[in-house]
């Protein structure tokens, strides 16, 4: 199956700072990448959809100025949480699709804001 | 209506049993229905998926049954093992120009007792 990596796997930052999370498709070209957040014991909540070379499409209620997404190449997308606050603490997961329907997920990034 | 309703919320079975997880949807434009397995602290992994022109699909011990007229689909796990203990999510893909995003169900926490 297709492999998607994320870095870092966990990060702790102070309130007010920014954090960047990378998502890479390792063995296929990802035409589209997705960013989700997940709270404990809850489902995945789609934050945004990004296509290589174009602006991300954000879901309703997601602040685009707070969650900056860049999809610089067919194998890399980044999510930057700007001016992070404790309520941004969550499990962030990316996924990617190539030319098929299948959406493959990364291992997730645990963000803790102190 | 872009929702997928999943039940039960949690499920306990004995080893060798056949847990069944059900999902229902309203939007007849959904065109792809995957199931994901997620272990604690990990990203979801694609298990099996089906398209609406097929009534059943089997891969190893996992079977999807799809009832298009009832707008329901379910996951059956044959000969379940303790290693199958995880959270399972059904999902549906809106057809048309929606960028390939998935709508997820609420998740089912499965525990398989030895």
List the helices and strands and how they pair.
The complex is a heterodimer of chains A (114) and B (114).
Chain A: E1 4-7, E2 10-13, E3 19-25, E4 32-38, E5 45-51, E6 57-58, E7 67-73, E8 76-81, E9 90-97, E10 103-105, E11 109-113
Parallel strand pairs in A: 2-11
Antiparallel strand pairs in A: 1-3, 3-8, 4-5, 4-9, 5-6, 7-8, 9-10, 9-11
Chain B: E1 4-7, E2 10-14, E3 20-25, E4 30-38, E5 45-50, E6 56-59, E7 62-67, E8 72-77, E9 86-94, E10 103-104, E11 108-113
Parallel strand pairs in B: 2-11
Antiparallel strand pairs in B: 1-3, 3-8, 4-5, 4-9, 6-7, 7-8, 9-10, 9-11
Could you provide a short overview of the structure?
The complex is a heterodimer of chains A (about 110) and B (about 110). With about 110 residues, chain A is mainly beta. Chain A has strands spanning about 5, 10-15, 20-25, 30-40, 45-50, 55-60, 65-75, 75-80, 90-95, 105, 110-114.
Stretches of chain B where pLDDT is under 50 for at least 5 consecutive residues are none
Classify the secondary structure makeup of chain A into a structural class.
Answer: mainly beta
Number of helices of chain B: 0
Largest β-sheet summary of chain B: 6 strands, mixed
Structural class of chain B: mainly beta
What percent of residues of chain B adopt helix (DSSP H or I)?
under 10%
Order of helices and strands of chain B: EEEEEEEEEEE
DSSP summary: helix tally of chain A: 0
**Unreliable stretches of chain A:** none
Mean of all residue-level pLDDT scores of chain B: 94
Order of helices and strands of chain A: EEEEEEEEEEE
Gyration radius of chain B (Cα, Å) is 14 Å
Oligomerization status of the protein chains: heterodimer
What's the overall geometry of chain B?
globular
Structure summary, number of beta strands of chain A:
11
């Amino acid at each position: 199956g297709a492999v998607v990596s994320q870095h870092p796997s966990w990060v702790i930052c102070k309130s007010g700072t920014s954090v960047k999370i990378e998502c890479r498709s390792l063995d296929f070209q990802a035409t589209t990448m997705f960013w989700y957040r997940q709270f404990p014991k809850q489902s995945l909540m789609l934050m945004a959809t990004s296509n290589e070379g174009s602006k991300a499409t954000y879901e309703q209620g997601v602040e685009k100025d707070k969650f900056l997404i860049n999809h610089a190449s067919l194998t890399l997308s980044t999510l930057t949480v700007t001016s992070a606050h404790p309520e941004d603490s969550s499990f962030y997961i990316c996924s990617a699709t190539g030319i098929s329907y299948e959406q493959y997920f990364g291992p997730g990034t645990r963000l803790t804001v102190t | 209506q872009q929702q997928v309703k999943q039940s039960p919320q949690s499920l306990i079975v004995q080893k060798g049993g056949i847990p069944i997880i059900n999902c229902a949807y309203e939007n007849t434009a959904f065109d792809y229905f995957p199931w994901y397995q997620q272990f604690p602290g990990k990203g979801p992994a694609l298990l099996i998926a089906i398209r609406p022109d097929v009534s059943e699909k089997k891969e190893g011990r996992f079977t999807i049954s799809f009832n298009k007229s009832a707008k329901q689909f379910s996951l059956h796990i044959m000969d379940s093992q303790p290693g199958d203990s995880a959270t399972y999510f059904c999902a549906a893909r809106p057809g048309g120009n929606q960028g390939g995003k998935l709508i997820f169900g609420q998740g089912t926490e499965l525990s398989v007792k030895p």
